[in-house]
Amino acid sequence: MPNVKLVNFKGDVIGEEQVADAVFAAPVHVPAMHQVVVAQLANSRVGTANTKDRSDVRGGGKKPYRQKHTGRARQGSLTSPLHVGGGVAHGPHPRDYSQKVNKKVRRLALRSALTLKVKDSQMLLLENPVLETPRTKSVVEFLRQVGAERKPLFVIHETNVNLYKSAGAVPGAKVMHVDSINVYDILHHQHLIVTPEAVRKIEEVFGR
């Protein structure tokens, strides 16, 4: 089983912990990760863009001018896309962008993403990230000490309002509950910082 560094909120390495092979040393399946990320981004689209085509534009009942002898191209209606104020040709209309992904593929993709973080030494275990008051400076100092200043993702096992507020002012940083963990956020953020309790929950859910 792979070992992951365990640090405290001061940035000191206080040991190592083993993580399950089934989740953090699984075969990396790139197509599964790609499919899940594409689906996740597609599902976040609201699909409400709408335009009026020539049948939706007011007017157009009368022929603008006679057919012949004007020296101009023939026109049958002012609602044509060729005219200012006319309808839009082939414009967007409300639609559903959502994609369905098999549960097994989602689980495979998540294990692959977590395995990549462990292989690249971009995952840390954080013991007891307690802040008595919201303090961004403390989070910045911690990230500097552990070398995770760029786009860190905190995954915690319980609500931590002070950590949410403190990390919210750090560029690129994000805090999420373990129940919301997903492939896109794991891959989008460079460093993954997880509480040991959250790791146990991930192993329990995705290690079967």
Widest beta sheet: strand line-up: 2-1-3-6-4-5
SSE-based structural type: alpha/beta
Q: Unreliable stretches, pLDDT < 50, 5 or more residues?
A: none
Dominant shape = elongated
The total count of helices amounts to: 7
Tell me, rounded to a whole number, the average pLDDT: 93
Beta-strand proportion: 5-15%
Distance between the termini: 16 Å
* Share of helical residues: 25-40%
Largest sheet: 6 strands, mixed
Q: Give a count of the beta strands, DSSP E runs of length 2 or more.
A: 6
Indicate the radius of gyration in whole angstroms. Answer: 27 Å
Please, could you describe this protein's structure?
The chain is an alpha/beta fold and 208 residues long. It is 34% helix and 13% strand. The chain has 7 helices and 6 strands. Strands 2-1-3-6-4-5 form a 6-stranded mixed beta sheet. Strand 1 and strand 2 form a beta hairpin. The model has no long low-confidence stretch (mean pLDDT 93).
Topology:
Elements: E1 3-7, E2 13-18, H1 21-24, H2 30-43, H3 103-119, E3 123-126, H4 136-146, E4 152-156, H5 161-168, E5 174-177, H6 183-188, E6 191-194, H7 196-206
Parallel strand pairs: 1-3, 3-6, 4-5, 4-6
Antiparallel strand pairs: 1-2
Q: In summary, what is this structure?
A:
With 208 residues, the chain is α/β, with parallel strands linked by helices. The protein contains seven helices and six strands, in the order ββαααβαβαβαβα. Strand 1 and strand 2 (13-18) form a beta hairpin.
